[in-house]
């Protein structure tokens, strides 16, 4: 629009706002040098690395085609039919309940530790960006970076066999998992409410309770249930490394090379994990509705 | 007249960008100051430097006889209790009730342990009820803040600031999220309350007409520099042109 019409209604733009005729570029293209070159170069590099990795690792692609057939054959020959009798006994179901209890304890303890840790590890709300923030981040990262099975092996070596090392390993896993998600939820809150609470003379803890918790509680409830679900899945296997629960049963059958017993146990793990997943999804929607 | 707030040569900003370039003014008891100016002039930063929601770089903010910039964190929290603040986006705790929102104004006076369980005193609850009635929300006490209309929310914001029993009110664009009619109601309510409780007000407002109608004194900011100061009557076309750096209708 020409500047003349704007000035007629009383608006005189300061110099440099309106383009003067002749300053319009003659053409326009989506592809610019050198940005486009970098973009497509990077894409090409990514594909080239796939080829390089396949070649370097000497992956025999020709073995892939018959894989499904061979797998079906092996399963049918050695694992079928699953020896259901092996898991249909009170002793096995007792370990299932133990696994459930272990995962529950680990999740409750882990989340209780995660709550203050996530507060300290959120960049926007941490009481001290210089000291508390990096330490809290380090703790969460340390819990995350070591796989839960490695934690189990370490803790079994320290504490001996049983439920205790399993529950502790899962607690550490839970801290790493929910701690990170919790602190990310805090970092996404609206800062205005924090400002308003701070302006009343409230201290850090009061700001956390009144400005942060009401904003994150729905997200946190969902994360907590999801965490329990993931911890339970991990709990089914920690016994394999000597930490109690269903996994111990699995290990014993594997060592006896009782393939049809193993098949039955694996099947039962799939079933309970699916049940826990369905339950956690149902619970999450219910809880979100109840406390929104 | 008694001086409540004195700002001297206030500078604020980041390493690469200066937002306030040496602002000075004096606010006396019963004053109602309007700070006007274009977007990005530093109005919000100026008001937030007073209670140090934004940390200034240098200068002095003398409030209640002390330099706010020299206070320790604990002293600052103590002094913030004496400064009520009203916000553009209301900044209510959306998932708490109206009553709980108003009572958060007392957090500075409530011990940490008591505040965890929301144990406010009987007097504080009585004050909250009286204030909610005064701002016209007597029927909405138990409603959640996110179920209120914009005008009602700002009234909760006003009650929350007043229950602090403040010696100064900072008001940051109280009407930007409201329609013109409700804007005038809200400004009227703030003025009425400020007069009744003898609280001086420092109010950011981009609407020049509202500023002139409700405020006793106007400060014009442009690009971090004070371009005008005086009563609304002296705010003529030339002064506005100076502040907004453009022809005004």
What does this structure look like?
The complex is a heterodimer of chains A (292) and B (249). By secondary structure, chain A is mostly helical. Chain A is 72% helix and 0% strand. Chain A has 11 helices and no strands. Chain A has helices at 3-8, 35-56, 67-79, 90-120, 132-145, 148-159, 163-187, 191-199, 204-238, 246-255, 259-291. The longest helix of chain A is centred in the last third of the chain and has 35 residues, at 204-238. The model of chain A has no long low-confidence stretch (mean pLDDT 88). Chain B has 249 residues and is an alpha/beta fold. Chain B is 35% helix and 24% strand. Chain B is built from 9 helices and 10 strands. Chain B has helices spanning 43-50, 73-80, 98-103, 112-116, 122-134, 150-162, 180-197, 208-214, 237-244; strands spanning 3-13, 18-28, 32-36, 58-63, 66-67, 83-86, 168-172, 201-204, 217-222, 225-230. In chain B, the strands form 2 sheets. Chain B has a 6-stranded mixed β-sheet with strand order 6-7-8-3-9-10, sandwiched between helices. In chain B, helix 6 runs parallel beside helix 7. The N and C termini of chain B lie far apart (37 Å). The relative contact order of chain B is 0.19.
Q: Share of helix among residues of chain B?
A: 25-40%
The CATH H-level homologous superfamily of the largest domain in chain A: MetI-like
Q: Termini of chain A, distance in Å?
A: 48 Å
Please provide the count of β strands of chain A: 0
CATH class identity of the largest domain in chain A: Mainly Alpha
What is the CA-atom radius of gyration of chain A, in angstroms? Answer: 29 Å
Biggest β-sheet of chain A: count, sense, barrel? none
Radius of gyration of chain B: 18 Å
Net shape of chain A = extended
Strand content of chain B: 15-25%
Classify the secondary structure makeup of chain B into a structural class.
alpha/beta
Q: In order across it, which strands form the biggest sheet of chain B?
A: 6-7-8-3-9-10
Which whole number gives the mean pLDDT of chain A? 88
Shape annotation of chain B: globular
- The CATH topology annotation of the largest domain in chain A reads as MetI-like fold
Which chains have the largest interface?
A-B, 25 and 37 residues
Secondary structure class of chain A reads mainly alpha
What would CATH call the architecture of the largest domain in chain A?
Answer: Orthogonal Bundle
Runs of chain B with pLDDT <50, length 5+? none
């Amino acid at each position: 629009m020409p500047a003349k019409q704007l000035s007629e209604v009383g608006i005189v733009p300061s110099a440099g706002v309106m383009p003067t005729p002749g300053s319009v570029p003659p053409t326009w293209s989506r592809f610019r040098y050198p940005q486009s070159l970098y973009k497509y170069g990077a894409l090409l590099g990514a594909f080239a690395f796939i080829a390089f990795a396949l070649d370097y690792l000497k992956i025999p692609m020709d073995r892939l085609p018959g894989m499904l057939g061979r797998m079906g054959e092996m399963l049918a020959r050695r694992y079928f039919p699953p020896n259901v009798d092996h898991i249909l006994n009170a002793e096995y179901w007792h370990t299932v309940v133990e696994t459930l209890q272990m995962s529950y304890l680990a999740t409750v303890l882990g989340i209780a530790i995660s709550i203050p840790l996530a507060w300290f590890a959120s960049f926007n709300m941490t009481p001290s960006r210089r000291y508390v923030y990096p330490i809290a981040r380090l703790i969460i990262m340390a819990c995350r970076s070591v796989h839960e099975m490695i934690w189990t092996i370490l803790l079994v070596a320290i504490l001996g066999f049983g439920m205790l090392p399993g529950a502790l390993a899962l607690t550490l896993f839970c801290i790493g998992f929910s701690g990170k998600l919790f602190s990310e939820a805090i970092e996404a809150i609206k800062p205005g409410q924090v400002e308003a609470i701070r302006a009343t003379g409230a201290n850090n803890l009061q700001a956390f309770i009144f400005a942060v918790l009401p904003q994150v509680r729905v997200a946190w409830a969902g994360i907590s249930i999801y965490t329990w679900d993931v911890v339970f899945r991990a709990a089914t296997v920690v016994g394999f490394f000597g930490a109690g629960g269903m996994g111990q049963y699995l290990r014993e059958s594997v060592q006896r090379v009782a393939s049809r017993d193993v098949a039955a146990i694996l099947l039962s793990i799939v079933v309970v994990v699916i049940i826990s997943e369905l339950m956690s999804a149902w619970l999450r929607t219910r809880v979100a509705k109840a406390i929104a | 007249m008694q001086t409540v707030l004195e700002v001297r040569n206030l500078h604020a900003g980041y390493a690469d960008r200066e937002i306030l370039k040496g602002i000075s003014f004096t606010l006396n008891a019963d004053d109602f100051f309007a700070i006007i100016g274009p977007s990005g002039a530093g109005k919000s930063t100026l008001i937030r430097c007073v209670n140090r929601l934004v940390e200034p770089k240098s200068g002095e903010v003398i409030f209640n006889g002390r330099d706010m910039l020299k206070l320790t964190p604990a002293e600052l929290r103590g002094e913030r209790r004496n400064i009520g603040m009203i916000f553009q986006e209301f900044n209510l705790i959306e998932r708490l009730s109206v009553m709980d929102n108003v009572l958060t104004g007392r957090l500075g006076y409530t011990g940490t342990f008591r505040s965890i369980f929301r144990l406010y005193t009987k007097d504080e609850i009585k004050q909250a009820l009286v204030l909610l009635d005064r701002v016209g929300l007597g029927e909405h006490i138990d409603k959640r803040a996110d179920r209120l209309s914009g005008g009602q929310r700002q009234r909760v914001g006003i009650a929350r600031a007043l229950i602090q029993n403040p010696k100064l009110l900072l008001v940051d664009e109280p009407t930007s999220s409201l329609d013109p009619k409700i804007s005038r109601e809200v400004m009227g309510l703030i003025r009425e309350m400020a007069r009744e409780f003898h609280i001086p007000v420092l109010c950011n407002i981009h609407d020049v007409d509202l500023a002139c109608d409700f405020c006793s004194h106007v400060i014009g900011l442009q690009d971090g520099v004070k371009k005008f100061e005086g009563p609304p009557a002296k705010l003529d076309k030339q002064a506005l042109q100076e502040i907004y750096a453009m022809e005004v209708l």
